[in-house]
Design goal:
The structure is a single chain. By secondary structure, this protein is mainly α. It contains 20 helices and no strands. Residues 1-20 have low confidence and may be disordered.
Amino acid sequence: MKKMMMVAALMLLSVSAAFAGNSDALKAILKAQSYSEASKLVESSLGQLADNAEKATAYNKVVDLALDAFNGESKKVAAKQGDEATMYDALATAFTAASECNKYDQLPNAKGKVKPKFGKINAVRLYQLRPYLINAGGFYQGKDNKKAFNLLSYYITSNDDPMFAEVKTDPAKDPNYLNAAFFAGYMAYMDQDWSNAEKYAGMAVNDSVNGENALNIMLAAMKAQLKTAEDTTKFVEKCKALYEKNPDNQSIFANLVDAYSQAGKADEAEKLVDDRLAKHPTDFIALLVKGQFQEQHDQYQEAAETLKKSLENAPDEQRKLIIDATIGDCYFYHAQARLDKIKGVLSKAAKEQFVPVYQDAIKYYEAAKALDKDQSQKSKYAARLYSCYYFVYGETDPKTQEAKSYAGY
């Protein structure tokens, strides 16, 4: 009889355990009145929750409260009475908590069985809110670029979240996908997060609106990560692959030339330029780089003529300014190189031979100065413009004094 009573007692214990209610930790979470309170409780008591099912339930409570807060605040924002930061914080919390909820919802419960409860409803109610992540990124742009990136990038990565497997759309049919990728890359670039800038901007290089800017961001981010010779070699290979796919793209071409130069492969760089000019003889970038190579080889007169051809095809004033200044340098350094060979005092007759060359330099430096309306590019020409005026007109001439003042001397 005693033995039977003991068995009965054991049965009673097992029944009470099987039908036990929620743990105290989950009860406290379910009583929370705000998503911030619930989030803190989940964070502090996750290890005290009974099983995966309780953890899923706890995170789902955070989702419920966060969505309630988002919906309430969005109505206030629409009426111009709410706070966008509060609204987007609630939205971000809802997405993060839902992802955690789904993770535990797909794991075995205390009985070893997988019985998802929240995945489908969270997928439906959250997926339709994904466009707000883009709005949130725009809201934080310039205020908190890291937060802006996190929200924008989640628009992209959430499409591959298992939670949305049954409701997601094809990115190719999503008009917001490439736009979100571009701005995620841009925000990462502004935050100097180079790897993510390269990754997300790279996704948007074929975007009809932002593709060219995305490519420039991606290339700049790639260059910012160069620290070793091995990095430079990898950069060359990446640029070569891009150039093979986009042989007409000037930005990729220019970066590949620069990559070769940084890797100490000057011959490959010059061959690349010559090959491009053979196919595109008026390509202003190729002509500009060709002129710069000629200048480096002290072929100043040839460089000036090549750069003049580049100037004819320059697409905007900023690049015209750079080319004008570079042509001015060709004349200036050509004169300087010849002067360096003269020993003793320069005679008046000898000086007269150099005046036309310096005047040509002045012509192009003045053209650069005229385009430099905000004087942000003075370092490219101002000092040498003064030197030219000094040689041609002398120190006391008003033109020389004006050039001297402009150069900051």
